[in-house]
Amino acid sequence: MNKKKLSLIIITIVIICSSFFIIMANKKEDKYSSTYYNLGTINEITLYNINKNEGDRILKNCESILTDIDNKMSCQISTSEISKINENAGIDYVQVSDDTYYVIKESINFSKMSNDTFDITIGPIIDLWAIGTDNAKVPIKDEIIDKLSLVNYKNILFNDDNKSIKLAKKNMKIDLGGIAKGYAADKIYKYLKEDENLENALINLGGNICILGNKEKNQPFSIGIQDPTKPRGNSIGNIKVSDKSVVTSGIYERYLEKNNKIYHHMLNPHTGYPFENNLSSVTIISDKSIICDALSTTTFGLGIEKGLKLIESLDNVDAIFVTKDKKIYLSSNLKDKLNLTDNSFTIINQ
Q: What's the farthest any 2 CA atoms get from each other in the chain?
């Protein structure tokens, strides 16, 4: 074999190998995910049909979105916009970002539609109980009565000209724990779909699930419905969803036990005590995670009858109510769509 022919063979092999490595480098993986800690919980975002380099870049941007919202809306971060509003309660207006202004405005809408069952000014009551912290306690009645005088969303004052907010009374406190994760999930969903043109992703912000597109082979995601009698990760059944958010609130999440009585973390802004009814959990399914987040707690507080009535009055919103005696009530659009896998539970209005 002459040198010229040998050189051509070697060049050909190099080109083929180079092409192979380029193809392999750009080969899309089944999924690529990352875990973060923001908004007081563990979050995981999974991207499908994407290569590692792109996945790494996009997931870092998702983390930036989460961190930004946390830094604006967490009342546990002293420099956040919410903390600044709370520090200036009864004193002055605080100018905030478009994000924070929008979320607080939306919170007012949920308060109005729920007969004040949802109220983000419940912060003083949340601090009093401190459920989920080392300082958790059952407050005495006088303490609760005192703090209840500070709870009223109608005392949130707005200046639309410069997007600033003031709390009318001193010692009032906003807590966005019941809505901020939903907003964050929606913002990440929008970023992945509109800015990155992704078709498939699973956003899980501490149990707040938001689905972009479908999973493998154009099949919808199967989302488990948490068993409220067991630790997180155990389900009573599942539903199949695409481009939807699924959020559950239940008495199993955070609670305080004293004298053989359970006090869960969902507090009634009218009484200052945990909501009392026969419900153990409510799951909301909707196009927007902010809707799911706010309504999961709201409808829990309203109870089955009023909660179902509210859900049925809203477009593109569905609910699964689970009672303490293991009965399941479904909104009309979900009938025949819940795949029940635990026979100890019974669907009442299938």
A: 100
For 30-43, how does the pLDDT look when each residue is reduced to its tens digit (9 = 90+)?
788 999 999 889 99
pTM: 0.89
pLDDT at residue 224, as a whole number: 93
Please return the burial class of 137, using the count of CB atoms within 10 Å of its CB with bins 0-12, 13-18 and 19+: middle
* Residue 327: strand pairing partners: 346
Provide φ and ψ at 90, rounded to 5°: 75, 5
| CA proximity to 281, closest of 244, 314, 251 | 251
CA proximity to 246, closest of 211, 194, 196: 211
What single string gives the DSSP state of each residue in 23-87?
A: HHHTPPEEEEEEEEEETTEEEEEEEEEE-HHHHHHHHHHHHHHHHHHHHHH-TTSTTSHHHHHHH
- Angle of CA points 102, 47, 317, to nearest 5°: 45
Structure tokens at 294: 């706010």
Cα distances (angstroms) measured from residue 12 to each of 1, 17, 84, 116: 16, 9, 66, 74
The tokens describing 66, both together, are 């989460």
Helix, strand, or coil here: 306?
helix
Whether 336 has a pLDDT exceeding 90, the answer reads: no
Q: Quick one: 246 exposed, middle or buried, by C-beta within 10 A (0-12, 13-18, 19+)?
A: buried
Q: What is the pLDDT of residues 259-298, one digit of tens each?
A: 778 888 889 999 999 999 999 999 999 999 999 999 999 9
Q: Are 235 and 72 in contact (CB under 8 A)?
A: no
Asked if pLDDT for residue 23 goes beyond 70, the answer is no
Q: Please name the residues in contact with 215: beta carbons below 8 A apart, sequence gap of 6 or more.
A: 48, 200, 221
Residue 146 CB-half CA count within 13 A: 9
Cα(263)–Cα(255) distance, rounded to whole angstroms? 5
SS3 assignment, position 92: coil
State the residue for tokens 């994000």.
Answer: 99
Residues β-bridged to residue 165 = 94, 158
